[in-house]
Write a structure and sequence with these properties.
The structure is a single chain. The chain is mainly alpha-helical. It has one domain. 72% of the residues lie in helices and 0% in strands. The protein has five helices and no strands. Helix 1 crosses helix 3, helix 2 runs antiparallel to helix 3 and helix 3 runs antiparallel to helix 5. It starts with a helix and ends with a helix. The model has no long low-confidence stretch (mean pLDDT 97).
Length: 130
């Protein structure tokens, strides 16, 4: 199989897997820690700290899973492509900052720890060289 074609498939597959993991954790979180009555789901500035656990896990583990799959199945440039998955999800995180008001501490932790570091860690877990 052509290396470029294989890399494109790895990126698409990693992006898809990452999104599935992300949504799965968001849904699981809403079931395990449901918002109390009267809490606005579209204004995270009013949430208790416990409501931030699953969104962060969804962002971090979704990115990690996507980066791992991409690095594991790409034909070359394993680290670069895994970091690209991190950047893709980071762009989604930045978009959410503008859509869903949240405390600065959560925005900072989320944007700094859940995306690029998890992209790099997904590559490391894949066992692939640069």
């Amino acid at each position: 199989m052509n290396k470029i074609f294989k890399n494109v498939l790895a990126i698409l597959g990693g992006g898809f897997i990452g999104m599935v993991v992300n949504m799965g954790l968001i849904i699981a979180g809403s079931q395990l820690i449901p918002l109390a009555d009267g809490v606005d789901p579209m204004n995270a500035k009013m949430w208790e700290i416990k409501y931030f656990l699953f969104p962060f896990l969804a962002h971090a583990i979704g990115t990690l899973a996507g980066a791992f799959v991409t690095a594991k199945f790409s034909a070359s440039h394993h680290m670069m492509l895994a970091i690209c998955i991190g950047i893709f999800f980071l762009l989604g995180g930045i978009t959410m900052v503008f859509i869903l008001p949240a405390p600065i501490w959560f925005i900072s932790v989320d944007l700094l720890l859940a995306y690029i570091p998890m992209g790099w860690f997904g590559w490391k877990l894949s066992g692939k060289k640069l």
